[in-house]
Protein: ABC transporter ATP-binding protein/permease
Amino acid sequence: MSAEQTQTQTQAQTHRRLSRDLRYWWLVLRSFRGLSPLRVSALALLTLLTAAVPAAGIWLTADAVQAVADAVEGVPGAGDRLTRAAAGLVAVAVGEHVLSSVAQYLNSLLQLEFGAAIGEQVMVKGTRMDLGSYEDPEAYDRLQRALRESGGGTAFEVFEEMLRTLTSLASLVMVSSVLFSWNAWLAVVILLAPVPTLAAHIVFSKEGYAVEYHRAQDRRRAFYYQDLTTTDSSYKEVKLYQLGPYLVDRYRALVQEFFRVDRGLARRRHGWSAVLGLVSVAGSAGALVFALKSTVSTGRLGELAGYLQALGAVHVAAGGLLLGVATLYQNTLFTGNLFDYLSLPEGSVTGGTRPFPQRLAHGIEFQDVTFRYPGTETVALDRFSCFVPAGTCCALVGANGAGKSTVVKLLTRLYEPTSGRILIDGVPIEEYDTTDLQRNIGVVFQDFIRYEMPVRHNIGFGRVEELDDTDRIRAAAAASGADAFVDGFEATYDTVLGRHFEGGRQLSGGQWQKIALARAFLRDAPIAILDEPTAAIDPEAEADIFGRLRTICSRATSLVVSHRFSTVRVADKILVLDGGSLIEEGTHGELLALGGTYARLFRLQADAYLTPSGAGPAERSGDLV
Ligand SMILES: Nc1ncnc2c1ncn2[C@@H]1O[C@H](COP(=O)(O)OP(=O)(O)OP(=O)(O)O)[C@@H](O)[C@H]1O
Structure:
């Protein structure tokens, strides 16, 4: 590439970066829209007013010192000038104090308001994102980077730095006009002195950000190792497999690598800052000597006092500018993570306007559905077709990775099929209003949530608008068998579950699962999906739930994913998946008679239970289907 092309490319990059930064600044300012306009404008005005303080101070100091010198010489009127200048200096000092006290108060209020608003926006956005954004590592990294900014602290700092930079600039301009009115050359030297240090700060802030950006995965890994050694859910395994030292070693290796890179950066940053800072110091010292010498020839002592104060004022304003620009640059990049996240496209899964039926009349149909997870080549479903008649209970079985949960994700519209169609009551699924569709599906996922909240919420979240309807919550708990233990709690449905909060009560795995089932039952929706709903529930309770499933989900068309044949056999229809395709379907009896995969696996599991001694059922059959 020629030097000219490289230059053009660099210019284009700079241009792109600048317009991106301008966009982020605009987004930061726009985020203030919902906050108190009076507070925002008062803060901006007060902060900018403080910019006039240094120039006024220099002017008045020069006046006062000259008046003192003239008074000593007995120049007429010098005493009055001195009184005026001294009064001016006092007024400026008091004014600055009042302005900055009020500005600090407004600043702290706005910071609280801003943090709360951004935190809320991040949460709302999280609920609107596609599942793909959570399951794709790159998108998840972006999400995590944004979460780190979700307190709004960095974005607010950008606002503060914009103000500080503007104030410092305004202050420099005003000080310059005073200095230029005295001596142009001296003004130039004083003003340029801080530039080299400024340049070093900007360059290294940029490098620091790039380093942090590229290590996002490793940072997350380090947090993960920390998490494994400090959370209740992983404690038992880490302890008994003695994983502690290994995890600490992995963590240490990562942070040592961070340290190695950061040390290199710190050496260069501080080395260059020291060298370039020396240039700045030399500039200021030269200006000082020049000011002293020129005062000898002009005899204007007031101006000398002004120069000396100006050196300090320029140092402070340039420092403010330096800090403002450097931190503004770095924080703009970090806050970019937040705004990039907030402006991510929402819901690639598109829906229509058709309301979802209260009860299915025909059924659910998958027609030649193929699905690949975004960013992967693996075909999770391969021309999958099936029909689940309305009002029936259909079971999905298949080996691990066969595609069962993927069917659930497509039916619940968490993903869109790559090709093929899903019809509900003969209508393509995308014609239904997505929110309405999701409201009309009661689902228990394999990895359901254990809300660290009262039982009422854990069950009531099935119909959040009816959280206070204790009778319905009780009925749902009775349907899943959760009432048996909840009624035994002192605070019954107001008992807080989990261990994270004070007074929380921990449940067993099976009890949690019954609570999750109650949540889905409460929904009383036309479609019920239970993805491995009873894996942790004892066989007696499982038989009871499934024996009554039709009564519990009386209006529903249900889809049950299970590895347990005792659960599966009661279904009206069983779909057997293998490698993302449907390989067999029928009732339990029909599939046994067919003598295919289902029959083989059923017998394997049944034999394992009937084997009098030796290997236990789990060992013999495992999770074969
Ligand atoms: N989020 C994802 N991103 C990429 N690939 C995925 C994702 N989830 C699942 N897969 C892949 O899709 C295929 C089907 O997975 P799925 O979870 O549907 O299987 P399953 O039948 O439910 O398995 P199991 O019985 O273990 O729950 C598997 O090959 C799996 O590796």
In short: The chain has three domains: 23-342, 352-440+529-538+555-625, 445-524.
